[in-house]
């Protein structure tokens, strides 16, 4: 590249950054104006205990959003519980009066060989269990969401195997066992962690009227992002150290498979919405040379968001509008239960 071409590229990059900042502040000011206009109609919520009674002006309540998050936490917490302890969550952590109660089945303990992976697994298990207990504590005995049925098994037709087959990690009709090794466990975790980050970020706007819940959700989002970074960094390290494992290639394949499930929403670079909102660990080439892709972001350095419907597309393993499938064979519990028609 000549000096003139490099100067032009630098100026172009500055223009793109300026336009991105302008779009950001325009969006922020517009949102602030909208909030001011609506402030006279907002109903203050004076109690931290959500009441799951939908109003005529909202499709879903804050309680619905918290329940939706709890379904996802049940899924994650049980996966790590099985991997670390050999058992799912205790009955005291999954019972509830709302929805159809079900068991998490098919998991088993991982015989960890890498002490770092074992330590990460134990820590994340405790974190996810804390999330389950925190969300459950926001409800009363009569409004608490029961854990739905969850498939964490290794059957060739089960959720893990179906996802792995779709990504090309195993052949058609072949089982994928996320409990078979440290690396398989990390790939199983990779299926969930990125989705958890995008789910909490996408759900945040629904909690804006209650700053207490918004702050709590932001705290959980940060933890999920830490977890995703741990999993992605470890897979990247192992993939670089032992290329024959093809772990980096596997993450790219999983991300592409997930991306086929959640549709092609119109891109919004400020809100982190895009038709391609999933990225594996494959290295990329920039003006600074070859770099890793530990953190999946858009061009503005903003994490991606998914709507609840898009999240359900992924955990149901179905690009169509449906109310069950994949990791939740009987569907999730609560009012947010149908995936988006993203095909």
Automatic annotation (TrEMBL):
One Pfam match: Ferritin_2
Name of this chain's protein: Ferritin-like domain-containing protein
Organism field: Sphingomonas endophytica
Source taxonomy: Bacteria, Pseudomonadati, Pseudomonadota, Alphaproteobacteria, Sphingomonadales
